[in-house]
Amino acid sequence: MAAPRATIVTRMTALTATRQRATSTAAPASTATAPVAAAPSAATARRILSASVFGFFLVGLDAMVVNVALPAINRSLAGGLAGAQWVIDGYTLAFAALMLSAGALSDRIGAKATYGLGLIGFTLSSAACGVAPSLALLITARLVQGAAASLMLPASLALIRQAFPDPAKRNRAIALWTAAGSAAAAAGPVAGGLITAAVDWRWIFFLNLPAGAAALALLAGTPKLAGATSPVRARFDVVGLVSSVVALAGLTYGFIEGGAEGFGTAPVLASFAAAVLASVVFAVAESRQAQPMVPLAIFKSRAMSLTAFAGFTVNAAFYGVIFLLSLYFQQVAHKSPTVTGLLFAPITAVVSVVNVTVAARMVARIGARLSMTIGLTGTAGAMLLLLAVRPDQPAWALVLLLVPVSFAGAFVVPALTIMVMGSVPAERAGTAAGIVNTSRQVGGALSVAVAGALVAGGDFAHGMHVTLIGIAVVLAVAAVAVQLLAPGRER
Length: 491
Description:
Elements: H1 2-26, H2 29-32, H3 42-64, H4 66-77, H5 81-84, H6 86-109, H7 111-131, H8 135-163, H9 167-198, H10 203-206, H11 208-219, H12 238-261, H13 266-288, H14 302-332, H15 337-343, H16 345-366, H17 368-385, H18 395-409, H19 412-423, H20 429-455, H21 460-485
């Protein structure tokens, strides 16, 4: 039997060599000549992480920093409070509408290039916001700033995915990244109130200039990373790009205007109809493309779908609470903008500490699924605790009621980000980040719109209570879905 076995082995070896030669000669030039990037050094990885965290902090900060400063902006530019509201909404609209295509762009041209373009655009548009002589120009600059931010967010997460191939180190890096974003969102009202009271609202934007320059300096000189671009350079998916932007812009605009003018008005209904039509065009186009911008098969992943849903709910809770309580503290409890901002300061500290010290370790010990379930359930309970907020309560009591929101919510975003980044290859990290963070921004926009509609022109406390209960129910549904359907111990 030895001789036949030797003959078989010899033939298999020859066949393997023949196939290897055939594969080598038949390989396309684009893949045959593509350079193979080495794993980054520890110093390079730390530098990339610093640049990503720095930029993501700016993106999160500018999403919330204008809230408390809005009355001062209205007085300075005399455009009316309804028009001034678009200083916030314009950023949100561009941010949410373009992020999905920005994530796909990151996978096409590289996360580093996309992130660099976003940083440059964000810094320049911040300067334009600071010097804007009219409300119309300020809103235009905020639209550009939101578009630049949409490039930065998925690319920053893709950079981290590529810089940290080791799962344990990547989880710790993601915890820092999420801490920066959560802390920025919580610190936004604090910074906005303090800067507006101490100097002028324009310095909210001017402070982005040295920060953006520092992030660019950190990014410069870093080498190309493994998985920085897709293996195949496909033709750009124009139909997918346009239809996704129209769908998300229509959806976000409908939420914003619906909250302000009513969801039954003609412009709102038209925007929702455009969003539905564009979504159908997007789904059909992506299913027929050989190289789609967003492969629809990615949504078959339970990790992808559930993290998008969880991100939607947790942003709805966080943005909705900050929006509601910012108004409640000033309009009902009659507190100053500075005091209102300071009341949110403990949230910043709690989120940062939990993200950095506990969240990643908790995922490593019990898995991302259970971490998300605990965080979502705790946040739902924290929403119900906020029903006890009263205008005559002392500041310390209000702070104690806010702490559970930040503590429980701080477990959700690191866990869902770790889960989704662990479920996709490095070359699809930008697309996955774009999907999850698009759902998060849509959740925030919807929450603010619905909350605004419920508290406008009526009993503020009743509208706030209805909103908090609704958010708690959605969070509970997300917790059950994640626990029952999400993949197991994602580490």
